[in-house]
Amino acid sequence: MSELSVNHLLGIKYITKADIDLIFETADHFKEIINRPIKKVPSLRDITIANLFFENSTRTKLSFELAEKRLSADVINFSAGASSVKKGETLIDTVNNILSMKVDMVVMRHPNPGAGVFLSKNIKASIVNAGDGAHEHPTQALLDSYSISKKLGDVGGKKVVIVGDILHSRVALSNIFALKLLGAEVKVCGPKTLMPKYIESMGVEVELNLRKALEWCDVANMLRVQNERMDISYFPSTREYTQQYGLNKELLDSLNKEIVIMHPGPINRGVEITSDVADSGQSIILNQVENGVAIRMAVIYLLASKIKQQ
């Protein structure tokens, strides 16, 4: 298969395993490029991409911007915090204004679930969802699965536990879709109050005990507690959360095997994971960051090749 089955990347639930395989293959190629002395390719010289961030983001935004520049695309950055959105402009108005500047692709992060899907139905550009509310974050899930396959050779058959705030996490949801598509076994672990009611219907087991979860898994993906999405208290205190669900070196070393540690960032060091775990040889957190650029280059490149055909 040499092209994606979709014109937008709105969520993992809209793509196929063949799409993921193609994105990974393309990312391999770009990974080689970003490790060369000259890191740019002229592939998207005639494509204009607008990055629309209606929510704060440092890492994802930088990663997308770097990916776009490595591909030689023209990039427009738009941060909604300081813009007319504050004055009441609607999403469609904002985007239409940007499209009148002849933009081919929009990378968007938005606090409302489904914002990307809404846009894709109303405007002509290709949409990449860089996170919509607590719904999906597809490129993060792709780079996470890609990082596992690079580290362990394959995702199929691996046991992956996602630990932490599953309820508010778009990373967890997209990761579950991607890992299941690629044939991994998935469990989630965290306080009962941070588990969505529908989680088991996704074919995922809930494990409330962190040690048991770690003894079972090959890979542990440690999520941060998303205090900014919480309007009520879901657990007594950060200290108590850390005691039950924080991963420290002592716990890691007491397991009878070596597991791979991941984290989508930003890390709350000392809360969900201690510094000596984050910086240990078992952690692939920095590989995730590097792989993120290659994966985003692959997604943008593959979507842009579909735009060029239109």
TrEMBL record:
Carbamoyl phosphate binds at residues 59-60, 109, 137, 140, 265-266. The keyword Transmembrane does not apply. L-aspartate binds at residues 87, 170, 224. Its EC number is 2.1.3.2. Pathway: Pyrimidine metabolism; UMP biosynthesis via de novo pathway; (S)-dihydroorotate from bicarbonate: step 2/3. It holds the Pfam family OTCace. Keywords: Pyrimidine biosynthesis, Transferase. Residues 8-149 form the Aspartate/ornithine carbamoyltransferase carbamoyl-P binding domain. Signal peptide: none annotated. It comes from the Bacteria. One of its GO terms (molecular function) is amino acid binding. SUPFAM superfamilies: Aspartate/ornithine carbamoyltransferase (SSF53671). Residues 157-302 form the Aspartate/ornithine carbamoyltransferase Asp/Orn-binding domain. It catalyses: carbamoyl phosphate + L-aspartate = N-carbamoyl-L-aspartate + phosphate + H(+). GO terms for biological process: 'de novo' pyrimidine nucleobase biosynthetic process; 'de novo' UMP biosynthetic process; amino acid metabolic process. InterPro entries: Asp/Orn_carbamoyltranf_P-bd, Asp/Orn_carbamoylTrfase, Asp/Orn_carbamoylTrfase_sf, Asp_carbamoyltransf, Asp_carbamoyltransf_Asp/Orn-bd. Belongs to the aspartate/ornithine carbamoyltransferase superfamily. ATCase family. Heterododecamer (2C3:3R2) of six catalytic PyrB chains organized as two trimers (C3), and six regulatory PyrI chains organized as three dimers (R2). Catalyzes the condensation of carbamoyl phosphate and aspartate to form carbamoyl aspartate and inorganic phosphate, the committed step in the de novo pyrimidine nucleotide biosynthesis pathway. This is Aspartate carbamoyltransferase.
